[in-house]
Amino acid sequence: xxxxxxxTHGICPKAxxxxxxxxxxxxxxxxGGCPGNTAAIAKLLEGTDAKNVVDVLKGNDCxxxxxxxxxxxxxxxxxxxxxxxxxxxx
Length: 90
Prior knowledge:
The chain has 90 residues and is α+β, with helices and mostly antiparallel strands. 44% of the residues lie in helices and 23% in strands. Strand 1 (2-7) and strand 2 form a beta hairpin.
């Protein structure tokens, strides 16, 4: 299981960490932000297909910020999947 950490931009949490194993996302943690909402996101996504997380959550906006906790997670997962693909192809 590979663990990733993302420094966020434009949202309350300062960072997000998660793990990807066999294409599924686990152990999502938001560092800061609204504990109720971020805990709910983490519970709902536990064991979900990582590519689906990107498809569903990327582009979600929070109050006109141009991003959101969900969007930042999706962008981090997208980057992790791209990096994992580059490693597998090498």
